[in-house]
Amino acid sequence: MKNESDTGGLKITETADGVIFTVHVQPRASRNEICGVQGDELKLRLTAPPVEDAANKLCVELLAKALKVAKSRVTITAGAKSRHKTVKVEGITTEPVLSLLK
């Protein structure tokens, strides 16, 4: 069963085992931060360059830390070679993701 929530422009799909949402990654930024919503995606600025999976690893680490879950629960399901990524986080609901926007 999927439940789609469209809050603040960010589209979050809640599934039986977690949530799925999209992120827009800006690599080679001056610092790692969550910038809010851009379009219907969560915007992340990362210091890592987009080579050898460095930005993807940092994306997973940043989201895991911000959502207070283990890194193993955060997976990039689509867009590994793109700035636009689909991320699945297991074991949480929509509320922790929305709290990142405050």
UniProtKB/TrEMBL annotation:
<dbReference type="Pfam" id="PF02594">
    <property type="entry name" value="DUF167"/>
</dbReference>
<protein>
    <recommendedName>
        <fullName>UPF0235 protein Gura_1167</fullName>
    </recommendedName>
</protein>
<dbReference type="InterPro" id="IPR036591">
    <property type="entry name" value="YggU-like_sf"/>
</dbReference>
<comment type="similarity">
    <text>Belongs to the UPF0235 family.</text>
</comment>
<dbReference type="InterPro" id="IPR003746">
    <property type="entry name" value="DUF167"/>
</dbReference>
<dbReference type="GO" id="GO:0005737">
    <property type="term" value="C:cytoplasm"/>
</dbReference>
